[in-house]
Amino acid sequence: LINVYKPGAYAAVGLTYWVKNLKPDGYNMNITCTPGTYGNPIMNPEEVTYSMDQIEPVFNIVTDPGVLLVRADSPFQTFEDLINYAKEHPKTVTIGNSGIGGDDWVSCNLLSKQAGIDIVAVPFAGDGPSWQAALGGHITATSNNLGITYPQIKDGALRALAIYTEERSPLIPEVPTAKELGYDIVNGSSRGYSVLKGTPQEAIDKLEEAFWKVMEDEEFLANGKKIGLPLNPLGHEDYSKYLDKLAEDFKVVWEEVNK
Fold first, then answer.
1. What are the pLDDT digits (tens) for 171-186?
2. Which pTM does this prediction carry?
3. Residue 57 buriedness (CB in 10 A; 0-12 / 13-18 / 19+)
4. Using alpha carbons only, what angle is made at residue 100 by residues 41 and 178, rounded to the nearest 5 degrees?
């Protein structure tokens, strides 16, 4: 694999270059990250010139779930502690996120709406500055990702109050899901591979087969577990449905915020 880096505009630069300049021959893939891939056309329909109709998902590798964390010595021992305090003290709880339109931002909005709380969402230039601000005591909590903050959780520097998954994560089994606490929040950042629409089905099948072999590689699986990489293998069909559902949910949140 030869990596071609086209950074900028929440992956819009790279995705636009990809769909405009490369051929649907199976040799030109894109590392598909969410929510940026489907979020860009929703947030900036007049400026973003690519669409999801030009993208053919092949295989998802990772779904890094969202987590809500506080520093270890925070007075908030549980998710309910923070929610209750936020209800009693509107606009005093500050929660960091990785920027407008990111999965952490979506999680904050879903939490605010479902819990009926008025928090202050603090955008940062990425997940790192967000969790570092929480660790430094500059914000109440950070809405982040498990794969990003797993080392700090493991070391005891940060404490996860809830995770935004269907079921508890085997990496942090003691942390409850938001769903079991009564909040229908399942969210995170996925990373997979896509090809251009029009790519021969034979090429798509070949790539999917190769990715399934990777997901059976013992060394790869061991390394993923070691660094807290939440693997979530999805083949072509399931991955396509998954991205469609995420895009629908994102659009609802975006329209709600921008009423």
1. 899 999 999 999 999 8
2. 0.84
3. buried
4. 105
